[in-house]
Design a protein that fits this description.
Shape: globular
Helix content: 10-25%
Mean pLDDT: 80
Number of helices: 1
CATH topology of the largest domain: Tick-borne Encephalitis virus Glycoprotein, domain 1
CATH architecture of the largest domain: Sandwich
Oligomer: single chain
CATH class of the largest domain: Mainly Beta
Number of strands: 9
Largest sheet: 5 strands, mixed
Length: 155
């Protein structure tokens, strides 16, 4: 009788240990992106994947790459009458609360926006479209450049 209890105990212990090991592996390999993670804008250049957030310490706001509003760039291998352009939407939040949305474009006159005492410029958007190849929204990556706004009154 004692032999049967120890056998069952051993089997139950092995099943529990195996089950714990599997559940922790499943959590570690979860393919769902962590949308709560926010990187800090380090230096003057930041590279952002679609849906990611970056924290702008100078103005205490987070910037999310939230939308590709337009991508009419002439695709590689295509023949176009005009070059086209791309524009993206950034969502600003302060302490988790919505502040405003900004739109930046690769057109020079629409490539910058002011956020308090900081100027954000859209440097690039990739991937560049190609003929017969659809770009999925999650594949977009933008490069932003920040600079300090020059106070014209103190010169």
């Amino acid at each position: 009788m004692t032999h049967n209890y120890s056998k069952w105990f051993s089997i139950v212990a092995i099943i529990l240990l195996f089950g714990m090991g599997c559940s922790s592996k499943t959590g570690a390999n979860n393919s769902t992106p962590d949308t709560t993670k926010t990187d800090t804008f380090k230096g003057a250049i930041a590279k952002m994947k679609f849906g990611s957030k970056i924290f702008l310490t100078e103005e205490n706001v987070s910037i999310e790459f939230s939308k590709v509003t337009n991508d009419s760039r002439c695709p590689k291998g295509g023949e176009c009458i005009h070059q086209g352009n791309v524009s993206v939407e950034l969502t600003l939040e302060k302490k988790g609360e919505f502040v405003k949305k900004l739109t930046l474009s690769d057109l020079e006159q629409e490539s910058t926006q002011e956020i308090g005492h900081v100027i954000i410029k859209l440097k690039s958007v990739s991937p560049y479209p190609e003929v017969n190849k659809k770009v999925e929204v999650q594949d977009y990556v933008i490069v932003l450049e920040k600079s300090k706004k020059i106070n014209q009154g103190n010169q």
